[in-house]
Write a structure and sequence with these properties.
CATH superfamily: NAD(P)-binding Rossmann-like Domain
Number of domains: 1
CATH class: Alpha Beta
CATH topology: Rossmann fold
Number of helices: 8
Helix content: 40-55%
Shape: globular
Distance between the termini: 35 Å
Number of strands: 7
Strand content: 15-25%
Largest sheet: 7 strands, parallel
Strand order of the largest sheet: 3-2-1-4-5-6-7
Structural class: alpha/beta
Order of helices and strands: EHEHEHEHEHEHHHE
Length: 255
């Protein structure tokens, strides 16, 4: 298979939760592959810096303020992305939050914030992009950032596990329903991936105990997700939909 099949030149993408962590890296990865990228998040200042980084490498980035839990904000984001970048054929649903609390201590507001962001927000973005694609008569790829904790449970993060489990099955449901429109819907399920958000914890004694349970004996890096991301974003995955790609160093296989 020629490597050109992974090229995203001429395509436009939206990455949510692009202000930090995996979303920030995903945006840079898609831009490096040739895509024009709408980088969206609630915090705009970090997006401006990301825009400079992408454009310094001859890429095209469009910073957009976005609250994925707000339908009006989702609609505004889609309209701005289409106006500035043209038809959107790739969505990386990456916006997400977590609250660490024992199940008996989780308050309703915390539960709602996690599930609304991780699951409802992904649904609103996917629905908006599918409507856009169907209206313009083209297909594309929706990539949901799930988690290995959407495939197996863990203590102290019940809302997160529930939201990611729901996202996994939402991925499958949308893949079945939208396939006739040429819209592929897949998910990435990362394990422990080191970012600026969790770096200190993963370097702690508790983190070391987690690392020893990973068969590859290391935590992942954002770069470890690039191959699967480009596969799902590009025409290389033209016959893949409804799939969940686990990227966890063998963690879930050893459970």
């Amino acid at each position: 298979m020629p490597l050109e099949i992974f090229d995203l030149s001429g395509k436009a993408a939206i990455v949510t939760g692009a202000s930090s962590g995996l979303g920030r890296h995903a945006a840079r990865c898609l831009a490096a592959a040739g895509a024009k990228v709408a980088i969206a998040a609630r915090r705009v200042e970090p997006l401006m810096e990301l825009e400079k980084q992408i454009e310094a490498c001859d890429g095209r980035a469009l910073p957009l303020r976005l609250d994925v839990t707000d339908p009006a904000s989702v609609s505004d984001c889609m309209k701005a992305a289409e106006t500035e970048l043209g038809p959107i054929s790739i969505l990386v649903n990456n916006a997400g939050v977590a609250v660490t609390q024992a199940a008996l201590e989780v308050e309703e507001g915390d539960w709602d914030r996690v599930v609304d962001t991780n699951l409802k927000g992904a649904w609103l973005m996917a629905q908006a992009l599918a409507e856009h694609m169907i209206r313009l008569g083209h297909g594309g790829s929706i990539i949901n950032t799930a988690s290995v904790l959407g495939l197996a449970g863990a203590a102290q993060i019940p809302a997160y596990c529930a939201s990611k489990g729901g996202l996994v099955n939402l991925t499958r449901a949308l893949a079945v329903e939208w396939a006739r429109h040429g819209i592929r819907v897949n998910a990435l399920a990362p394990g422990y991936i080191e970012t600026e958000i969790n770096r200190d914890f993963l370097a702690s004694a508790a983190g070391e105990a987690l690392r020893k349970r990973v068969p590859l004996r290391r935590f992942g890096t954002p770069e470890d997700l690039e191959g699967a991301l480009l596969l799902l974003a590009s025409e290389a995955s033209r016959y893949i939909t409804g799939s969940v790609i686990v990227i966890d160093g063998g963690q879930s296989a050893a459970l």
